[in-house]
């Protein structure tokens, strides 16, 4: 097995990363092998001596490589036995169910805003509840100090950032560095093909406004991020929910069928990488089919892609836009989840609707404020962003592993879920008898905020699901909270059974 | 005359401003008297001795008061004769014409975006042209250094501003200080009645989205800020242009007639203070009538009020919202014109549509980024903002006076305009024979950018108007540019006459 790794670990097979030190390059090779399943949980790692010989490196480099892997919780040292690929501390739990492929009718739902408002006003009465209902990582996983320094530098160098109006599409230096970085997502665009937006949600709104009229139908994933359902409601659009798999994302055949039977579908919105809330990542073949299907049907495909760089592994997957040949895909993303939730910086490439989106953005909110953009441009130019992403992914993986173990250990029979391969969300199916609305209320009483499944659909499909997010890098805190939730679910299931 | 002033100058008649030094309070009393016309151009000011006696102040205080008035170009020293109220260096030019009160039909114009795009792509070919077509003051009139320092302080004190998500409605401290300051505009609201927005334009968009459906008609001023026409176009709304006076703003009788004859009007949008481009300020009685008219008709009145604090005088006029008793008025404003064009901070009070506007803002772009809000909150808490506003108003008045003189001296017969009592815009009617589109092109060739009247209407009413804005605190530069424009207009008028 070790030989296989060494052969596969030939650096020339991968995009070279000469900017990284050797120990990091070697650690990344092993990280990839573990991620690929080439090295499996419990496999023995090469001894230090073997590692040094095979890669022609010093003891210091070998030690440092192993240290990186150990800190990333990928390998464990066993006393007097050497290093082993870590066995994730996760007990068995049935995987999430694959979706029923039957389509509900398209619905213009006008209650999601008020459902969310009710939710918000309820949890605001519990300001001290531990938040497992959020959508960003723990604050200490973001590079606060480095961004603060970058902002201080930018302000000193360019004092008029606050008082001079900026260019319409956004800061040119930021757009240039984003265009270069987009190559890693498989996206070939220039700085002029990018418009900066107020977070990814403004980008998605602009995309919808560019290609639809009120009353039109939009195909969305099911379950669907409630923020998208809110945007649809506020724009007077109808949502057609397409079944979506917890492992491979949107069911392409179901979409093909829907496009055939619903000629009023004017757009498709998909989160291809770490779907919210499922956590699914579409395989490349599915991505290619989806883009081709939409291009053939002449339907704009709106890609909401804020989580791509949170997918585990050395090289995050590509965006749908990578397969786009004729401008069918409108690509929307942001730095809210990966870097700086407080800065509200997103961007959009509008494909063949780019000029119209530029006009809508100008008419709606003009250019973004300047300082955040200049700070980001400076930060993204350096290797600090890549280092930060590795640390963020490692931190989230540790949290997910520990939480997955706690879920498996404490939730009652009938619970199902598939741990995602990145990001911060768990989409958990509770036993049929447990309503997530009642669970939400009871959990708040117990000092914990969760997100009930009811707001992830207009069609009432997910009443016994909850979305949990990783609340804190304090693993014991999260572990204890998840166990309390598990006991609560067990009590509620038992109580329902007794009635 | 002087006695009259002294009687009127009783500080108890005005809102006390104890935070200001005495010399400033006295200067403000005289500034107000000059603004009111109580002291007229050419009137003699009291002698220093008389001033000291009458106000019971020292020579130093008296000297300082006069120095403030002299720097603000309100009084002139004449050798061996004393101080006199300044005669503005403005030759006679016919005042702008009052509007024809006939209404055009409501039009869903779908060309304003492309007209603006053509304009933009044309002037982008002349990047070095002097910009008299802009909509913010000269950069050196904004408090760059003070805001920079405030931002550095905020970043050091609160490093997580960039990485932690903020509250939905905006920073609570900023909303609290805005609510306190709104009292000066006659607006009584609390911090919770305010939602921070990305500039005033997002606020106006949200207001329109809250109260209209695509296809509805919105009554607007004529001429109308082209940004509003763009917003209407992008939202699929029709514009009904209501005649608007260069001196008193929207013609209320014409609006009353329109509401009677066009039952499909779903909103009215008005810039009551320093209308863009006219520069008119509605008299209080008109403001009261307008609010009452809309309240009686049950039509939401959207107030776009970014220029209020740029009106000359000690105490800026009140907002329409001051007369609102039942939530009919949606108040929109920003700090883009008065303080910091680069920060893109605006706010909205949605009147009786406030909850719906809150939902739309959340669905469209979530909360504003944090840093700008915290910087503004700190700045607005101090007296620095008031000091800055005085300096900004004084600087703009000097520029307007010099430009008005240059217009009067150099533009051909048939030119008409009314100098506004604040702000940065001149709305100039050229001789009938001069097309503003041709004038725009010819001026660019000559190195000067202006705004042609064609984009201020959907109904093609202002083809021989231009909007000029104050380009620079270098008065000679602006003077020379305006004189070149005048000679150009004269040549074009003569050429048209010869044909």
Compact summary:
Chains A, B: It comes from Paraburkholderia ginsengisoli. The structure is a homodimer of 499-residue chains. Chain A has helices at residues 2-8, 22-36, 48-55, 59-71, 112-123, 144-157, 172-182, 199-211, 226-234, 252-261, 284-297, 354-365, 370-381, 384-410, 436-445, 475-498; strands at 75-78, 82-85, 130-131, 195-198, 217-222, 238-245, 249-250, 265-270, 301-304, 329-334, 345-349, 425-429, 448-449, 451-452, 465-469.
Report what the structure shows:
Two copies of one chain form a homodimer. Chain A is an alpha/beta fold and 499 residues long. Chain A folds into three domains: 2-85, Orthogonal Bundle (Arc Repressor Mutant, subunit A), CATH 1.10.10; 118-140 and 391-498, Aspartate Aminotransferase, domain 1; 142-385, Aspartate Aminotransferase, domain 2 (3-Layer(aba) Sandwich), CATH 3.40.640.10. Chain A contains 16 helices and 15 strands. Chain A has helices at 2-8, 22-36, 48-55, 59-71, 112-123, 144-157, 172-182, 199-211, 226-234, 252-261, 284-297, 354-365, 370-381, 384-410, 436-445, 475-498; strands at residues 75-78, 82-85, 130-131, 195-198, 217-222, 238-245, 249-250, 265-270, 301-304, 329-334, 345-349, 425-429, 448-449, 451-452, 465-469. Chain A has an eight-stranded mixed beta sheet with strand order 4-11-10-9-8-5-6-7, with helices on both faces. A three-stranded antiparallel beta sheet of chain A has the order 12-15-14. Chain A has a two-stranded antiparallel ribbon with strand order 1-2. In chain A, strand 6 and strand 7 form a beta hairpin. In chain A, helix 2 packs across helix 4 (59-71). The longest helix of chain A is centred in the last third of the chain and has 27 residues, at 384-410. Chain A is globular. At the A-B interface, helix 6, helix 8, helix 9, helix 12 and helix 13 of A face helix 6, helix 8, helix 9, helix 12 and helix 13 of B. Chains A, B: Keywords: Aminotransferase, DNA-binding, Pyridoxal phosphate, Transcription, Transcription regulation, Transferase. Chains A, B: This is PLP-dependent aminotransferase family protein. Chains A, B: It comes from Paraburkholderia ginsengisoli. Chains A, B: Residues 20-88 form the HTH gntR-type domain. Chains A, B: One of its GO terms (molecular function) is pyridoxal phosphate binding.
């Amino acid at each position: 097995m070790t030989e296989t790794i060494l052969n596969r670990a030939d650096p020339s097979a991968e995009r070279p990363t000469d900017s990284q030190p050797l120990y990091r390059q070697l650690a990344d090779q092993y990280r990839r092998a573990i991620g690929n399943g080439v090295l499996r949980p419990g496999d023995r790692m090469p001894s230090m001596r073997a590692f040094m010989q095979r890669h022609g490196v010093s003891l210091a480099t070998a030690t440092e490589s192993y240290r990186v892997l150990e800190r990333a919780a990928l390998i464990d040292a066993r006393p007097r036995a050497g290093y082993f690929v870590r066995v994730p501390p996760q007990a068995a739990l049935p995987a999430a169910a694959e979706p029923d492929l039957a389509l509900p009718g398209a619905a213009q739902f006008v209650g999601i805003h008020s459902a969310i408002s009710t939710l918000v006003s309820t949890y605001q009465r519990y300001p001290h509840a531990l938040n497992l209902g959020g959508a960003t990582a723990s604050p200490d996983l973001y590079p606060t100090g480095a961004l603060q320094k970058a902002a201080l530098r930018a302000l000193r160098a360019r004092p008029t950032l606050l008082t001079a109006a900026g260019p319409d599409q956004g800061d040119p230096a930021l757009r240039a560095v984003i265009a270069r970085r987009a190559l890693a997502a498989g996206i070939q665009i220039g700085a002029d093909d990018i418009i900066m937006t107020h977070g990814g949600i403004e980008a998605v709104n602009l995309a919808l406004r560019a290609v639809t009229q009120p009353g039109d139908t939009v195909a969305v994933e099911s379950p669907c991020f409630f923020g998208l359902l809110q945007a649809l409601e506020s724009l007077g659009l109808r949502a057609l929910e397409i079944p979506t798999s917890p492992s491979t994302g949107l069911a392409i055949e179901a979409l093909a069928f829907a496009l055939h039977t619903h000629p009023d579908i004017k757009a498709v919105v998909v989160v291809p990488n770490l779907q919210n809330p499922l956590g699914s990542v579409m395989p490349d073949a599915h991505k290619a089919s989806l883009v081709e299907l939409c291009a053939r049907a002449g339907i704009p495909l709106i890609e909401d892609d804020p989580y791509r760089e949170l997918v585990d592994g050395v090289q995050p997957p590509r965006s749908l836009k990578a397969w786009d040949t004729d401008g069918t895909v409108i690509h929307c993303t942001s730095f809210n989840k990966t870097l700086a939730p407080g800065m509200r910086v997103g961007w959009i490439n509008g494909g063949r609707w780019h000029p119209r989106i530029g006009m809508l953005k100008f008419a709606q909110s003009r250019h973004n404020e300047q300082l955040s953009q200049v700070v980001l441009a400076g930060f993204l130019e350096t290797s600090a962003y890549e280092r930060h992403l590795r640390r963020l992914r490692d931190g989230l993986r540790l949290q997910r592993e520990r939480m997955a173990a706690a879920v498996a250990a404490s939730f009652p029979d009938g619970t199902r879920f598939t741990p995602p391969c990145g990001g911060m969300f768990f989409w958990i199916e509770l036993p049929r008898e447990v309503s997530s609305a009642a669970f939400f209320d009871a959990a708040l009483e117990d000092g914990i905020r969760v997100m009930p499944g009811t707001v992830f659909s207009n069609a009432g499909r997910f009443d016994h699901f909850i979305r949990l997010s990783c609340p804190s890098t304090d693993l014991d805190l999260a572990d204890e909270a998840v166990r309390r939730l598990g006991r609560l679910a067990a009590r509620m299931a038992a109580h329902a059974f007794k009635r």
